[in-house]
User: Fold this.
Amino acid sequence: MESPAIRGGFMVIEAGRILHVAAHLPERFCGMPKVRLSGGAILPGLINAHCHLELSDIDQPLPVPQSDNGTGSMVGWLDKLMARRRDLVDSKSHVERIKQDAIELGIRQAWESGTRFVVDNVTAPWSAQWCEQSARGLCKDPSSEAYRALVPEIPIHIQPCIELVDVNQKRCEQTWEFAKKLCEQQTTTDRVCRQPFGLAPHAPYTASKRMVQQAVRSQSASHGLLSMHLAESLEELEYVEKSKGPFKFWISPWVDNEHVSNIGKIDEYLRLLLEAHRSLIAHGNYLSDYQIDWIGEHRDKVAVVYCPRTHSHFRHKEHPARRLEGRGVSVFLGTDSKCSNPDLSLFEEWKTACRMFPDLGARYWMEQCTTSPAKFLEIDQWVGTIRQGSKSLLTWVPLGGQEIADEDQLWQAMLDSHQAMPLEVQVSLMEMTFR
Ligand SMILES: [Zn+2]
Assistant:
């Protein structure tokens, strides 16, 4: 996406960094050991802009009952999610162990399909150490010379966004205490979890205006990321705009009056998010035209994350991707959790987005899960790009020996491909020839 595709080119990698990428190999690199790769394409590492790794220990997405408005019911799905959580607590199992295992599963699944950076909502209990261990445990053969040259020490990075919920006073205190504790754990060394940690006020029905305002203020000071589910379902709109519908009934056992009086309308949350250093609107399925215009005026600081397969799972109305693109707003791609998605492959999200909005094009959608979020998140110097100086966090897409004459055919061959994987896995699979 930063140059035309290079056919049969050369990439020079040393100690996990790209030193050179072009059609030709300069003389000074000719003596280096070489690995020949054929029958596939190398892409930048994929960026998943919205995920809940801690929900990865589920075999199948939770079913979504039908709602009165013709789409799937978010409330019906949340009921099932809460029941799952309750069962976990009631089972007296070791919750921390279960969550750690789920995160490990999620990180592995993301990495196996070529994802190198995940924006992840985290809830208590959680530890950066869990991500650290999982990510560093991914390399199978770190002793091999090629592997060590090719792969940086850390093969996948996580941007934790601490989820904030304040449906009542007690919950409000707990949520800030948890956020404070995690933020204090941050250190300055190069780690799997990117710092500063982000904050994720959960959604308009669970996060008051006051709390979002506080989150915006604290993230503006630290230049941290803000991520919030917004305008996700028609039920959410009915609740926050008209104070009625199934959400009102669903949330009533938990909320106190103080919280209810502080629930804002979508416009009010949007105005707060537009003030942040960087904010991601998860889903934004039902943003109106004038709301999209507003976001367009702040497009360097606010982007929307479209989760194509989750969107289909909830049978939502068409996503406003075209209108957002028309206003110059980035529409990044995310998986959301395995509770609404069969797996965490961002490559599959890319293929689905291309199928849903073919007019925007395969190249556009690839930008939205590589270079575009990399620039927005200010990480393009090291991930999401193939350029000199970037880490070699790269993706391999097998193209099944198809004849490829031009770039259109290349995109088509990638759309026909059944998988994407980390480049190092392909290299390990191949018989390596060192010359
Ligand atoms: Zn989500």
Notes: The mean pLDDT is 93. Residues 50, 52, 229, 282, 336 surround zinc ion (CB under 6 Å).
